[in-house]
Amino acid sequence: MPALAIERWAKSSDCPPEAPIVLSVEGTHGPIIHAVTRAAAERGARPGARLTDARAIDPALIAEPADPAGDAALVQRLAIWAGRWSPLVEVDGDGLRLDVSGVAHLFGGERGLVRDIERRFARMGLTARVAIASTAAAAWAMAHFGPSPLGEGGSSCRLRKGEAGSSSPDLTTFGHPLPRERGLAASLPPLPVAALRLDSDTVRTLDRLGLKTIGALIDLPRLALARRFRGAADVVDALDRALGRKPEPLTAAPADPPPRALLKLEEPATHPEAAPQALERLIPDLVEQLEQRRLGARQLSLTGYRVDGSTGVASVATAIPSREPKHLQRLLVDKAAALDPEFGFDAFALTAGWTEDLGAAQENLVEESSGERELARLVDRLTVKLGPRAVRRPQARESHLPERASGWVAAVDGLSPLAGEGGSSRRLRKGEGMSYLRSSPPHPPIAAQWAPPSPAGGEGLMRPQRLLDRPEAIEVLYATPEGMPRRFIWRRAAHDIARVEGPERIAPEWWRRPSSERLRDYYRVEDVQGRRYWIYREGVIGDGRGGLPNWFIHGLFG
Amino acid sequence: MSPTLSEIFATHPRDGGWIGFLLGQAARDKPLLWVQDRMAILESGRLYPPGLPGLDLIHVEARDARDALWAMEEGLRCAGLSAVIGELWGDPRALDFTATRRLAVAAERYGVAAFLIRLGGHANLSGARQRWRLASAPSLANPLDPRAPGSPAWDAELFRARGRPPGRWTITPNDDGQADRFHLVAGAGDRALGEEQRLSA
Prior knowledge:
Largest sheet of chain B: 10 strands, mixed
Largest sheet of chain A: 6 strands, antiparallel, barrel
Number of domains of chain B: 1
Distance between the termini of chain B: 6 Å
Largest interface: A-B, 60 and 59 residues
Strand content of chain B: 25-35%
CATH class of chain B: Alpha Beta
Number of helices of chain A: 17
Shape of chain A: elongated
Oligomer: heterodimer
Structural class of chain A: alpha+beta
Radius of gyration of chain B: 16 Å
Number of strands of chain B: 11
Helix content of chain A: 25-40%
């Protein structure tokens, strides 16, 4: 990646542009030149040559260590940023590969798209070689070996149009420098065989045979070629991929791209209101797409593309699939306002990364609004502001231990089955790129959730209405160690016990906890004022698991 | 009685008696929104669903009184709830007359009952339509075990109410288990009241 490495290095240093700089990596026989500046190239330094050889030509070369890991990280970052043009971006060695089928018209045709890409890369100080072709291999060849007005190898940004094999080769177009409307059959033959991405040995062999261009290869009988080059260096295969005779799918292609709305700004917006305003304009777009596909969003994210090549993301999740514009906007607007524009946003994308089927439901024909949908919206609003851990619904668990018997689930997760309306199935559609989302576990309907917990259940068992998060130690006076408690002191206040019921013995869960844990004897006690508490004694005397039993208070009765 | 805002003061912050009284008044046909601020959870415990069988609820753990009041107001706007219950500890600054008045107006406008529970707080200026002071009273005799607590009883004082005289009663749930009906067991002034009074929300 000659230009990217050197351009990245040049941006981070304050060296004059005319200095002959080479970036070197360690090779088996000493340092090898990795990238060169224009000045160094004029003095005979070439990438791939040994540093000592280059120094022999011109001793004035300045060598700096290259940083391939940093370059790769930059490419990765650019790949995310390139999502502004197409949802399908793949890092391909030293370049990016975008599937731009059906995208180009948004940027004023393919020519406009190419120009836009080049301009934006140039604004970041990066040289981009852009090519659009109907196959990925052809695009790679064009970008690397196509005629270039710049006269130097630039960092390449390859674009691939259409699914390989799905569009006919005569539709092929290239970004500038090539004239438009020239087919693959016309533009590929003049390129050298190296454009087929064959390994260097094969290229050298072909060269020696006098087969210097792709055109020469195309003319040969396939059978002879296939017989001569077998195994890894399959020339026929490479040729087929370039000419679109053989499909070469993009690996990152989700079969069903998530609904997505795009907004480009004329000027980078730096004011903090930019994101909420963009949201306001994107939501109707997205809702329309959702309506057409009969989907409801479960997760939404607003991505702001900054001019410096970074992105800011705000995302929210909803309890039931929704495509109600007002509701979605209310959920996202606060988080959108918190996005930091830094040097300015110049594009926004709103993506429904996770959707579920939602029938064409009609709302509010009569005055009465659907309670469950209202409830789900309430949960969404609360969750967005307070966080999923703060808004929860109870879920019974099978346990005798009081603190384990009561489980809580985030209401956003637990509420979804309520929304039976419209959602015909629980089939989830998730965007491939959204795999960081947790998939929602199948919850039983809410009504079934509160079937009394089976082991600890039963009407006869009395449980307090409030439970302390962790039991607090109390001092208890009792007549006999095994007998009923008489008086206890909790938080320095004495409570005289008037009535007691108990004990209810709960054994520790030995399969879960260390065996030294003691059993608990729970008592319901009422003090002279009538306040009722749930206290327990941990252990009994002589159980061999400690000394005198301790007393704790665990709950309050209503 | 149409839905409105009631304020309930627990006379002792670590007295859970008001819960039974409250659940008797709240309708149960739809879920409840139960908001607790962090101090309330620390001081007098978190809601424990196994002790509240058959109650469909959404629990909100609010960081402070401001969040709790916000969550309550959001809840009041939701027709899918039967009642909104908010527990606040002490006398938070955010809870002033305006805040209570907002809750009262929202409750009446959207028809969702609101209960503001004050644990360890003082009865300062408030827009609540009904203000109760509630304490546990010694429970009734347990028919099965004389030493055990029986059916719960509460000492409820209505110290301010719009459109009705204040009063003080000792009440206990109805025998048939219907929680929205209370028996008045004995008046504060030793008056024997045999009648039932329905205090449904």
